[in-house]
Amino acid sequence: MNEKILKAVKESREKSKKRNFSQTFDLVVSLKEFDLKKQENKFTDDVILPHGRGDEARVLVFSDNIKGDGFDVMTNSDLQNLSKNKRESKTLVKQTDFFLAEPKLMPVVGKILGAYVGPRGKIPKILAGDANTLVKNYKKSVRVRVKDSPVIQCLVGSEKMKDEEVAENIEAVMKFLETKLPKGKINIGKTHLKLTMGQPVRVEM
Questions:
Q1: Same fold, 3-54+141-202 and 59-138
Q2: What is the DSSP letter of 68?
Q3: Predicted confidence band of residue 15 (pLDDT cuts 50, 70, 90)
Q4: Three-class SS string for 3-16?
Q5: Where are the domains of the chain?
Q6: Contact 92, 176 (CB under 8 A)
Q7: Which of 86, 68, 74, 53 is nearest to 161 (CA)?
Q8: What's the whole-number mean pLDDT along residues 80-99?
């Protein structure tokens, strides 16, 4: 384990007052030598955290053939009903972390929810393979996104998790960035970690 990352996790706890809710650890990575004008440099990807998020992500599946076992499912009929209520559609997209959809329902989802999922980077992923396994993985995932500014911010755990678990989650995100960014480690600038209401702590890599 990277001891410098573990040190940053411990320091984040020390610099945050105890709150009456479970705070999340947020990782903030500033990018350098990174050209946002190049469209290919912008991306939205999902990373599975080895120890999960602390609280599971909310995953919704669009399907006419699957019955949810521990996850929510919306059918074509449900979508049609949703199309009559813009407020409910916006609320659904806001409160859901990840969407999965059967291929045949993708056009329907796009027509009804496209205006809401697109701007939030929540376009559904194709449901391919075992739904239960996919949902299980997405419940432990976070979205890593580069859109309008050369900064990446994502959740890496909660304060109810062990320091070592949060540190390993951070390592997983950093390893992903090293492979995803065009210049790898060179693109990774100053990195900070903070609890929701805490002070940012520099993560030395």
A1: no
A2: -
A3: confident
A4: HHHHHHHHHHHHCC
A5: 3-54+141-202, 59-138
A6: no
A7: 53
A8: 93
Q: How many Å apart are CA 25 and CA 53, to the nearest integer?
A: 9
Contacts of 195 (CB under 8 A, 6+ apart): 12, 13, 15, 16, 23, 24, 25, 26, 159
Q: Where are the beta strands (DSSP E) in the chain?
A: 24-31, 43-48, 59-62, 72-74, 98-101, 125-126, 141-146, 151-158, 188-195, 201-202
Partnered with residue 145 across adjacent β-strands are 44
- Chain segment 44-72, per-residue pLDDT in tens: 999 999 999 999 999 999 999 888 777 89
For range 18-25, the mean pLDDT: 87
Place of tokens 């990373």: 47
| 146 DSSP assignment | E
Contact 1, 163 (CB under 8 A): no
With vertex at residue 123, the alpha carbon angle to CA 119 and CA 125, rounded to the nearest 5 degrees, is 165
The correct answer on CATH 3.40.50.12780 for the domain covering 3-54+141-202 is: no
Q: Is residue 123 a contact partner of residue 31, using CB atoms and an 8 Å limit?
A: no
Fold of 59-138: Rossmann fold (3.40.50)
